[in-house]
Amino acid sequence: MAGNIRGKTEIPFRDGFYRGEMRDGLPNGVGTYSCESFTYTGSWFYGTMSGLGVMRYADGRLYKGEFYADQRHGQGTEVIEVSGVKSRYEGGWRNNQKHGKGIEISIIAGVEIRHEGEWKNNVKYGAVIQSLEDTGLKSGLDSDRFKNKKVEIYNPLSKE
Fold it and tell me: What predicted TM-score, i.e. pTM, was given to this entire model?
């Protein structure tokens, strides 16, 4: 009676393995799915990642937040670190894309670039606030002169 399995059950599922609660033969409740490209731990609704969860990607990215029908959807946080560039986005998601209000902070060679505002289908809209930090300045700028200064840069694609 696969449909009545409860508790910690591990089964082959899609291109990987699922371990967790089930109902009617499908992941339902809380469980973990692992495959080659990611591991997801969180809520399931009849075979789909839906509700709160954490997704760890093989490339090092991390997403914590809301899911709906296997998509990042709702409020969530994504953290990325690639080739010395650190980036963190907190805000709205729709159909696996940044969408709605959010804040993205990226640190590149000691320079912090902060975007607060709107996203539409993964595209930033509105002002970008850039602040220069003491550490890691490699551009020859006088760090005392630029320390904690902010400059607003407007996205030319913005409709504002």
Answer: 0.77
